[in-house]
Amino acid sequence: MDRRELLHWLRCDDALELSELWQRADRTREEWVGDAVHLRGLVEISNHCARSCHYCGLRAANRTVRRYRLTEEDIYRCALQAVQMGYGTLVLQSGEDYGVEGHWLAGLIRRIKAATPLALTLSLGERTENELAAWREAGADRYLLRFETSDRALYQVIHPDHGGTVSDRIAILRRLRALGYETGGGVMVGIPGQSYESLADDILLFRDLDLDMIGIGPFIAHPETPLWRARSPLPTDNQVPPTVEMTCKVVALARILRPDAHIPATTAVAVMHAGLGRELALRRGANVIMPNLTPPQYREMYAIYPGKADRIEVAEACDRQIRSQIASLGRFVGSGQGGRRRRPAAPSREHPATLKIAVCMGSSCYSRGNNGPAIETMRQCVEAAGLIPDISGHLCENQCTRGPHVTIGTTLYSNVQASCFDELLRHHLAVLREEPHG
Ligand code: 5AD
User: Fold this and answer.
1) Predicted local confidence at residue 438, as pLDDT
2) Separation of 304 CA from ligand 1 center, angstroms?
3) Taking phi first (over 0 means left), then psi (-120 to 50 degrees means alpha), and beta for anything else, what does residue 255 get?
């Protein structure tokens, strides 16, 4: 599926034709991740936020929010409740709150991991490399950080930089992957100023970032934010509408392009169409639900968008409702952590193969050119060839006089210059194609 076809589906409003897309997404979901729906217990651990994103009700500039931060004991109790309810994963989410301190959280992660079989997912915004590494080391398994939109100009407007550093969530997602996290990204659908083209690019980016989890929800304007009643700068026929149907299209296309990813039926889609939003998402590609385990007295304070916490739900009642909805769709609740389970499939244009590249990091090769910019060039060349780069550093080949060394697949190449890498790659792939396949 290329960008043109993505755009076709995003713009299609023919119900009969769209039923083809829904079926294709549902079949892909069934074939790749099965009928299990995984439940992830969500705990909103703090609604403090240092940032002032134009879309979010928790923005620092919103003085009408009563702020809270859960204690270690509060959060620990939620973890035990998640186990008791049979959930395999606990998600800790907050605004970008530096009061959720690195060491403190690492200690809590260790405690939860030691006492429970839960997988731990963090969703705490753009934290420092040291914090992300320490939390991973402490046992956190996954990290969610939506990139919101791949349109850099729009992102800059709605997500102002903070503390003098330019926000680059796409770069952070790559770092999270390198730290060993299963990584989740995602977008809002229907942000004022979001064009169909940029939404198609968002979906391509899900694939190119090889995301393990993809969160997609409609944009819902919050009255205490600059985007409340905002007029889109785009012509009406190029502004993406924030509807359940458009959200489902993105869910369906994400499923087709990243078939083994975990894709939640998000709270926002459930809020936008009470009763049906979640079911539609589950029938059009989604395979995860994140029931809220935040202690009820805090929920209305976590109002990212209006309506989110209106239906104060007792965890047990909510759980029963979700389980019966899953059963009514002929699906079942997944057991265990429900983590990444990569299934190899025949490579195709929709699901390109991964190409392993090992770059010698011995000091001699490094100084002759195997450095950061060269690796970036290699990555771009592999992507341009329609493959997914899997680039790692490895130790010295002990053939230093002929460096820099780079291994593509299983073939070791010497004297590799980044400026000629494109040519080398084409040669490598041509030789592969000529080799007889066993
Ligand atoms: N409408 C819908 N989703 C929102 N989010 C933040 N604000 C809104 C809103 N007004 C989403 C963002 C964020 C996630 C936690 O919630 O995508 O990453």
Assistant:
1) 34
2) 6
3) alpha
- 176, 132 in Cβ contact below 8 A? yes
Residue 156 inside a domain? The answer is yes
Residue 431 confidence (pLDDT): 76
State CA 63 to chain mean position distance. 30
* Most distant CA atoms of the chain, gap in Å: 68
* Nearest to 242, CA basis, from 3, 65, 94, 55: 55
Domain membership flag for residue 143? yes
If you take atom 11 of ligand 1, which residue's CA is the nearest one?
A: 188
Question: Do 174 and 54 have their domain in common?
Answer: yes
Which residues does residue 298 pair with via DSSP β-bridges, in sequence order? none
Q: 268 in ligand 1 pocket by Cβ < 6 Å?
A: yes
Contacts of 59 (CB under 8 A, 6+ apart): 49, 51, 52, 53, 224, 225
Its domain, for residue 287, covers 3-333
Residue of 55, 126, 247 with the most ligand 1 atoms within 8 Å of its CB, for mutation: 55
Q: Quote the CA–CA distance of 66 and 381 in Å, as a whole number.
A: 50
Residues 250-288 have pLDDT tens digits of 999 999 999 999 999 999 999 999 879 999 999 999 999
Q: How confident is the model at residue 310 (pLDDT cuts 50, 70, 90)?
A: low
Give per-residue pLDDT as tens, 41-72. Answer: 999 999 999 999 999 999 999 999 999 999 99
Nearest to 36 by CA among 279, 252, 326, 250: 326
Pick the residue with more confidence: 372 or 337? 337
Give the Cα separation of 102 and 131 in Å (integer). Answer: 5
Same domain, 272 and 410: no
For every residue of 22-76, DSSP letters joined together read HHHHHHHHHHHH-SEEEEEEEEEEE---S---TT-TT-TT-TTSPP-B--HHHHH
The residue contributing the CA closest to ligand 1 atom 16 is 304
Q: For 410, left (φ over 0), alpha (ψ -120 to 50), or beta? A: alpha
Cβ of 222 closer than 6 Å to ligand 1, yes or no, is: yes
Q: Is the CB of 146 under 6 A from ligand 1?
A: yes
Kindly state whether residue 8 falls inside one of the protein's structural domains: yes
CATH number at 400 reads 3.40.30.10
**CA-wise closest residue to 58 among 73, 69, 42:** 69
**For residue 12, what pLDDT is reported?**
98
Strand 411-413 to 406-408 pairing: antiparallel
Question: Do 312 and 358 sit in the same domain of this protein?
Answer: no
435 within a domain of the structure (yes/no): no
